[in-house]
Amino acid sequence: MTLTKFSKFSWVVLGWTILVILWGALVRATGSGAGCGNHWPTCNGDILHQPQAIETFIELTHRAMSGGALILVLIMLIWAFRAYLKGNIVRKGAVGTAAFILLEALLGAGLVLLDLVGDNDSVHRAIAVALHLLNTFLLLGIMTLTAWWASGGKRITFKEKGLWPVWFLLGLAGVAIIGMTGAVTALGDTLFPARSLAEGLSQDSDPNAHFLIRLRVIHPIVAVLVGVYTLNLVRFVYPQLKSKTGQRFALALAGMILIQWTAGLVNVVLLAPIWMQLLHLFLADLVWIFYVLLAANVLNTEA
Fold first, then answer.
1. Which of 14, 34, 131, 167 allows an S-S link to 118, with CB 3.0 to 4.6 Å?
2. Given CA atoms 17, 18, 19, 23 in this order, what sign does their dihedral have?
3. d(Cα 195, Cα 39) in Å, to the nearest integer?
4. What is the C-alpha to C-alpha distance for residues 235 and 254, in angstroms, rounded to an integer?
């Protein structure tokens, strides 16, 4: 792994993007998505709006951080085209990163403009939140690969890799589904908070409960199934890893799965406090990133 100025910058951009994602979760958890009304890119109709409420401050901060991420990705894109030759994989990664962060911005704007924020508990909001999370994971994935390739990582290939591409694609798809169901679950926890664990369990088993409440049971089931699958994938792939870096990624992924299970259980017992929701999302981002890095290490052209 070779760290150049560009690769270091790329890892910094990835770190900043994770912070933006976590602040976006804070926006949802505090009901601050409507802090600027249904106006975008203006805030309550003003270009330069002075926040009078904490919800507006939280929303404006998220918009400012998102704008910073867009600028950083633009710098990365221009830098990649100046530093790497045509056809280089780092260039392609930078283009993909720019495309997904633009889509991320559009999805965020759509939530505001379509009033899918605040107390909105519609099916449309649940679908939008899930798709937003999926794009977030795709953005983190291509951003991670770009930084990895810039640090000396090789191109990914599916040729002569047996069934490993299938196993990793299934695992990554599973983690994406965990994230999407988790986003919907977090929305339900925000809009329909339980005052006790017993009340929460009672809500989950009530056939007349709101669909966001009834969907909460899906997330932990998927998380356990995909987690078990991933731990077995790591167990089988670890002996075949030739590099110490790949072995570290495998161990990190397995460890993150176990930590995330623990965090999920704590989140349920504590009735999903905001700080725990943010930690749970942060760990989910790390699981996804280590999954991508392990896949890139196993499926590269020199493995």
1. 34
2. positive
3. 33
4. 9
| Residues 46/15, Cβ–Cβ less than 8 Å | no
* Phi, psi angle pair for 263, to nearest 5°: -65, -40
Q: How far apart are CA 270 and CA 196, in angstroms?
A: 9
AA identity, residue 73? V
Phi/psi region, residue 118 (left: phi>0; alpha: psi -120 to 50; beta: rest), is left
Rounded to 10°, the helix 5-29/274-298 angle is: 140
Tell me the chain's radius of gyration from C-alpha atoms.
20
Quote the pTM value: 0.94
CB 256 within 8 A of CB 285: no
In angstroms, rounded to a whole number, what is the distance separating the alpha carbons of residues 132 and 180?
Answer: 8
- For 70-115, how does the pLDDT look when each residue is reduced to its tens digit (9 = 90+)? 999 999 999 999 999 999 999 999 999 999 999 999 999 999 889 9
CB atoms within 10 A of CB 9: 17
Cα pseudo-dihedral 238, 224, 268, 265, rounded to 10: -40
Query: pLDDT, tens digit, for every residue of 274-297?
Result: 999 999 999 999 999 999 999 999
